[in-house]
Amino acid sequence: MSTLADLGDLLEKAPDEPPRSGRAGRVVLIVFLVVTLVVLGGSGGYVWWASAAALPAPTVTSHAPTANAGGPASLAVPSGGETLVRVDGGSEYLGPDAAQSFVASGGNEARSLASISKLITALVVLDAHPLTGPTDPGPTISYTEADTDLYDQFYVQGAVIAPMPDGLKLSLHDSLTTMLLPSAANYAVAVARWGFGSEGAYVSAARSWLSKNGLNDTRIVDATGIDPRNASTPTDLLTLAGLAQANPVIAQITGTRSAQITGVGTVYNTNDLLGSLGITGLKTGNLGDGTFNLLFTSSLDVGIGAPLKITGVRLGGETHDSTDADVQGLLQSISDGFHDIPLGTVGDDVGTITTPWGSKASLVLAQTTKVRTWSDTPVTVTLDTTTPQNYADGEVVGSVVWTAGPKTTSASVKISGAIEEPTLWWRLTHPSELG
Fold first, then answer.
1. Where is 10: in which H helix or E strand?
2. Do the beta carbons of residue 92 and residue 133 sit within 8 Å?
3. Which of 180, 183, 378, 421 could potentially form a cystine with 115 if both were Cys, beta carbons 3.0 to 4.6 Å apart?
4. Structural element, H or E, at residue 179
5. Does the domain at residues 82-336 carry the CATH identifier 3.30.70.260?
6. What's 211-261 look like in SS3?
7. Alpha carbon distance 358, 420 (integer Å)
8. What is the CA radius of gyration of the chain?
9. The model's pTM
10. Of 205, 290, 298, whose CA–CA distance to 245 is shortest?
């Protein structure tokens, strides 16, 4: 229902009239007042409708904030020798081929395995004499005089050895630990003899095992890897790494820094990188003269949720230290290839909102946002807005969505500044714009 205040507002906004004198002026005023009272007085009439009708949508002028892609990743691929790396768990970022060959250099020719051979020895022995789990000691091995003589035999050759006193008895688990961690050649042959009766019988069993597991480009002629004819390709070695990681006994042993073995003493893992850059194993090997190898696994946290599962091999490094540096540099460059891209900051202007009755305010971001991306993955931006409900300062009226590869993040868009509601006079004089 209309009020005297409404009438006052209307009178204030009435069109200016030139001065009139006498009776004519009074007639015009009386006619205007009568018409106004008739219009205002109709309950449920035009004024009521105009004052309650839905307002027209504002005009939104927007510009989505720009988002630049990050710098391209620069992978530190080792020079010389051969390198092959596969990555599981990051295909949305790195592409579907990462699980097969994310980094490959130097070809896929067979090279001497050196002590990586001992990883095959352990797997073949466990295939014939399985343990129930990583804490199962397994059967006891009573080492013979012929076994203890291996210490002197390999000492003369300059091979890595571990103590094996007369009458020593060790569990299979401790024997494998002593073979794998310090890479003791005397234990590799002794365990192979125990498992198959002779080293020659072990070699035959190993070749059958290799064939059964599809490792057709891998050759074994002894249990230690001292013989340079023990050889394999990078592709076969990554398959071997998968078999080793799937064996809980091998995974536990190769992921151990050191172990105290009764009758032997403390044995230390030759893999100096264990625990660095997520490295969890597996085996070093070297014959000197540019034959330094590392077969490795890593659970690398790059800030995308689940860590990347990386399997890699470096063959033909110049030295033990340079091989370690090659692997460290490569893993670090993969990690560095993931980065946060800043997208927007609270208060960033993204447009304006203007009403048909002339009120205006800014549209701004309500949150500071960033997105984690790989390399120079492009970032796409979309901005959507809606009609305000209250036209109030701070009211959320839309959102900005950024997408980079598999990652999406968003920020609300809000009104910054007051938007005044239209006057009753504007409503009364713009019926065609009301809903």
1. helix 4-13
2. no
3. 183
4. helix 172-180
5. no
6. HHCCCCCCECCCCCCCCCCCEECHHHHHHHHHHHHHCHHHHHHHCCCEEEE
7. 9
8. 40
9. 0.82
10. 298
Fill in the amino acid letter for 219. R
Beta strand 140-142 with 396-404 is: unpaired
262 Cβ neighbours under 8 A, 6+ residues apart: 170, 174
In contact, 397 and 424? CB cutoff 8 Å: no
CATH of domain 59-70+342-424: 2.60.410
- pLDDT string in tens for the chain (435-residue length): 344 344 444 434 444 444 445 555 554 444 444 445 445 545 458 889 888 888 887 888 888 888 889 999 999 999 999 999 999 999 999 999 999 999 999 999 999 999 999 999 999 999 999 999 999 999 999 999 999 999 999 999 999 999 999 999 999 999 999 999 999 999 999 999 999 999 999 999 999 999 999 999 999 999 999 999 999 999 999 999 999 999 999 999 999 999 999 999 999 999 999 999 999 999 999 998 888 999 999 999 999 999 999 999 999 999 999 999 999 999 999 999 999 999 999 999 999 988 899 889 999 999 999 999 999 999 999 999 887 888 889 999 999 999 999 999 999 999 999 888 889 898 889 888 887
- Asked whether the domain spanning 82-336 has the same topology as the one spanning 59-70+342-424, the reply is no
Helix residue spans in 348-407 (DSSP H): none
